């Protein structure tokens, strides 16, 4: 999510130990907000028993 707007989605199945990875590059400003969200559709969760990892890095400063 970027300032409340959905940017990307990753889908998983109910198989044990399913994993997904995704890379998104955004142009953000100082007051922007960026976060991830686990949206529970029909009782499905992200891998890791409901655990999600998010990391960010500054590629370059404008």
TrEMBL record:
Limits of the C1q domain: 1-62
Record InterPro entries: C1q_dom, Tumour_necrosis_fac-like_dom
Taxonomic superkingdom: Eukaryota
Name of the protein this chain belongs to: C1q domain-containing protein
Source organism: Dreissena polymorpha (Zebra mussel)
């Amino acid at each position: 999510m970027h300032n409340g707007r959905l940017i990307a989605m990753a889908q998983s199945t109910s198989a044990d130990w399913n994993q997904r990875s995704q890379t998104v590059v955004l142009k953000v400003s100082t007051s922007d907000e960026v976060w991830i969200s686990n949206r529970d559709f029909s009782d499905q969760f992200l891998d890791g028993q409901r655990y999600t990892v998010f990391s960010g890095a500054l590629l370059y400063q404008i």
